[in-house]
Structure formats: structure tokens, C-alpha cells
């Protein structure tokens, strides 16, 4: 998904603040059981989802150790409590179609209507812009936004030199950490390109992205003692 390309349509599909399935199931269960105790217990956990109330966050906290925090515009994602309200079972690989600085700039622009959770620079630096518990508007499809973590990679789909050794290594470490956190298999069903999101008109990561190499690196990282985690 090119960060330099307009994606305001993603916000139109995904920009509301609807309650997740957990909240809806909680309400249904409470009504069916008729238990005031159950209702009180669940409401005590869901109070922050009431209109005008936000779940407490730690400013600058990251989900991947060593990542740099640079916050995206709140207009480019939806606050949530994943995986409690939405199951996370996909990683979506993107390419920025531009430089790192331009990608950060558009993700911080509220008019852009889209952003990914992470950007991996060509030198391997990982930047987190949206917490994994939140729904980033990165895939152009509401269901895939809700179920996935989006990782952008600095560069161009037509330029093989964009995808450096440092980038592959850092991105594989990040993806391995995400897969481990959510119990996700390391395979091409669960680690996909933006081009594979249903209905997309994007082509990233493109023909020069070495999927065999990348999956092998992710598997190698997944076999090591876990390094990723909240800092």
C-alpha cells in the first residue's frame, strides 16, 4: 500500500466507532442469563467503550522492543482493545512508494484517512505509529483492518534495491514477534501482501519482494527466544 497514494476511502469504510463483537456478545449474554452480577462485571471492563470515554494509554509505549514511537493522526485509525474485541490473525506487508519521512508525514495527516501500525526503514529502524490493540486503516478493507497488523516498508515496488538486508532482518523479527503474540502460524496464509487483500487495487509489496527469503527469516526469528514485546 503506497503511503504516497490517497486512501481517504479507507476512512469511509472503517471510520466509525462501533462496538466490537465482544461488547455485543457481552450485552447479549447478560440479557440471556439475566445476571446483574455478570452485567456489572462486564461493564466494569467495558466502561471505557462508552461514548466519550477512552481506554487509558501510556504515552509513547510500543508493542515491539526497540521500535521508535511516532504517533499517527487519530483520524487514521480506530481505538479498540484487540485481541479481546477483534481476533488478530494476519500480518499485511506494504511498501510505502516513497521515502520514510514522506510516509510518516502522510500518516500524521488527518486528511489522508489511512496509516499502518509500523514502518520499517531501509536501514532496519522500526517505527510504530499505532498500537497493535487499535484498528489501523491500512488495508482498505474493514474486516482485514480489524484482524491484521499492517507493516509498511520504505521504498518502491519497482525497485529491488529498496529491500535491503537490514530491512528484511528487522521486518522478519517484527513479524515473528507479532505472530508469537497472537498465536499466528508463520505461513503465507497468515502473512500476506496488500495485493492479496480482497478488492484491493494495490500491488505491493510487488514482484521484487522475496517471499521465500522473508518467510525463512521469520521462521528463524520465531524459533529464537522471544525478543518482541511492550517496552
From TrEMBL:
Reaction(s) this enzyme catalyzes, per UniProt: Hydrolyzes the link between N-acetylmuramoyl residues and L-amino acid residues in certain cell-wall glycopeptides
E.C. no: 3.5.1.28
PANTHER family the UniProt entry points to: N-ACETYLMURAMOYL-L-ALANINE AMIDASE AMID
Keyword Phosphoprotein: no
The N-acetylmuramoyl-L-alanine amidase domain, residue ranges: 77-206
InterPro entries per the UniProt record, alphabetical: Amidase/PGRP_sf, Amidase_domain, NAMLAA_amidase_2
Protein name, as recorded: N-acetylmuramoyl-L-alanine amidase
Record keywords: Cell wall biogenesis/degradation, Hydrolase
Amino acid at each position: 500500500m503506497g503511503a504516497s497514494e490517497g486512501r481517504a476511502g479507507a476512512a469511509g469504510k472503517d471510520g466509525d466507532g462501533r462496538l466490537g463483537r465482544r461488547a455485543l456478545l457481552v450485552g447479549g449474554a447478560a440479557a440471556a442469563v439475566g445476571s446483574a452480577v455478570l452485567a456489572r462485571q462486564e461493564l466494569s471492563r467495558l466502561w471505557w467503550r462508552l461514548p466519550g470515554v477512552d481506554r487509558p494509554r501510556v504515552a509513547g509505549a510500543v508493542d515491539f522492543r526497540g521500535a521508535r514511537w511516532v504517533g499517527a493522526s487519530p483520524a487514521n485509525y480506530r481505538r479498540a482493545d484487540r485481541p479481546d474485541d477483534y481476533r488478530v490473525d494476519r500480518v499485511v506487508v506494504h511498501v510505502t512508494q516513497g521515502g520514510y519521512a514522506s510516509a510518516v508525514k502522510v500518516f500524521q495527516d488527518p486528511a489522508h484517512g489511512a496509516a499502518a501500525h509500523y514502518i520499517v526503514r531501509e536501514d532496519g529502524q522500526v517505527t510504530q505509529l499505532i498500537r497493535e490493540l487499535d484498528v489501523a486503516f491500512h488495508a482498505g478493507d474493514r474486516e482485514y483492518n480489524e484482524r491484521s497488523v499492517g507493516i509498511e516498508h520504505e521504498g518502491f515496488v519497482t525497485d529491488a534495491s529498496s529491500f535491503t538486508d537490514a530491512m528484511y532482518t528487522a521486518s522478519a523479527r517484527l513479524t515473528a514477534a507479532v505472530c508469537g503474540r497472537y498465536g499466528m502460524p508463520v505461513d503465507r496464509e497468515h502473512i500476506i501482501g496488500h495485493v492479496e487483500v480482497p478488492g484491493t487495487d494495490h500491488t505491493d509489496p510487488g514482484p521484487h519482494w522475496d517471499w521465500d527469503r522473508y518467510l525463512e527469516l521469520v521462521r528463524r526469528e520465531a524459533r529464537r527466544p522471544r525478543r518482541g514485546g511492550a517496552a
